[in-house]
Design a protein that fits this description.
about 600 residues, alpha+beta, 3 domains, 6-stranded antiparallel beta sheet, 17 helices, about 40% helix, globular
Length: about 600
Amino acid sequence: MSTLLWILTGILAYSVIAVLLDRRGVLPDSFKVSGPLMTIHTGRGRAFLNWLSTPKRAWRALANIGVGIALVTMVGTFFMLIVQSVSILQSPPAETVLQNPRNALVIPGVNEFLPLSVAPEIIIGLLVGLVVHEGGHGLLCRVENIDIDSMGVVLFALLPIGAFVEPDEKSAGEANRGARTRMFAAGVLNNLLITALVFALLFGPVGSAIAVAPGAGVGGVFPNSAAEFADIEQGDRIVAVDGVTVDSNADLSTVLDETTAETLSVELADGRTVTVERSAFVTGLSEDSPFAGETGLSVNDTITAVNETPVSTERGIKAAAANESVVTLTYSNSTSGEERTTTGPLGVLTQVSDGGPLDSDGAPTGERIVITSIDGERILDFEDVTAVLDDREPGETVSVVAYVDGERDQYSAELASEPDGWVESTVEFFTGESDDDDRAIVGILGGASLSGVGVDGFGIQSYPADQFLAVLSGDIGDGLAISLLFLLILPFASIVDPAFGFNFAGFVDANAAFYEVVGPLSVLGEGGVFLLANILFWTGWINVNLALFNCIPAFPLDGGRILRTSTESIVSRLPIDSKPAFTRAITTSVGLIMLVSLVLMIFGPRLLN
């Protein structure tokens, strides 16, 4: 059975046993069961809250800050969800794994971004978040002289999913709106304070105690690639190639780019030395590539020759295609193993920009073209485009050979200057490194080298250990806010930014081999420091998400309760009848809008496409 089915079976068995024990009176009166949900009530802790709430003026001042933060976040969340919902309705995006309902659950092993290996750290973070959140409500109850009936936790099949503080209804009803608003906002404020504390520790002493281990980290190995045939596995670190030391992923790329050898001796960090027979393995293929299609190349195929010249690397492919725009690729099919051929133009697969130089000379926009030559120079990748235009000036005319739907066309493009608002990484290509406005552009949008055929002669996916560590230590150089944003997307980094290639759930499993512990904290050992870093990461991640989620202005969340007290305060000043009904109409409408927006975000792409 699948993991999900095992979990569902366990939840069902737990529910049956818990209900039977409750009906037979085996469970204490403080335990209340409702299917898989169990609440545990206690009156303990009230004396501690009474003592802690003594400096009431200071707590009220701090809680007022929490109210301000909650209100700003509520407004921002409201408009963000509205804008996102309208965008989904107008142009439904393609469904991603983030929209899978299972990934809305913070349950390790069910949520595919939360591996079971970090379940203890996630549970610790969840417990901390729930305790401090509800503890904030309880503390402000006593600060505002609101009595507490009971406190406790909510379990879903033994997994803590919530906590609660039950104020005395009569006492809460007698409190003024300001007191109740501060009490509702206290949980959000506490979550944010814990987030600030644990991230400060992560960015500071704990993050600085972790360093990237020397070598190139193997995050994954392509099936049927040269690396797999050489028994290189995920979690290995490559420390030398043909006797040349490799200290990082960049070093490995440099060594592989500079060597023309087809057979490589590769040393791994575990002491093994393996032999890699390089092969031009297809790692990616654009659907618009002239070599794609039912009878063309596929990912995992291996290119063996270009125009009958044997090749084993990307460099070899470029050399063999240097004198011909249209080439015949010979390749080994990954499914059948048979040798096949496919023919087409080999160059830069791109698109002509509206109003650019190529568009002005009649090149088609809105469809993919393959540029194979600029001013007589062979074009195979974007570096070739840069090299050709490097010495050109805006106003010069260059000839451009391109293939549209397999047909050869030639254009005379008068090079233009970089337009205002132009974005280097996503719009057009330019030459030169200066920041002036005299960069010569030919008028193409982003595309892919080798006609959209991605080739790797080695066959590994390098793990971005240094990028992940930079985020975890707050060392990405774009300010604290950007560091926090990147920190929050780490568990699904490859979905938000495919450039990462991997998700980061903590220093666990194979990726722990890419890091080492340095400095004074090394006395804790690698296991101790990694565990501490994982706990801090997940505690901060869960607490900030709890805070943001509770700020959604919808009942029964804290944001919905704050919305109610705020609306009551405003409506009480209006010259209208039936003020309670008007208040309910506003809060109910906002809550329904938020519910619809959340449903659209999760299920919209599936329902509307």
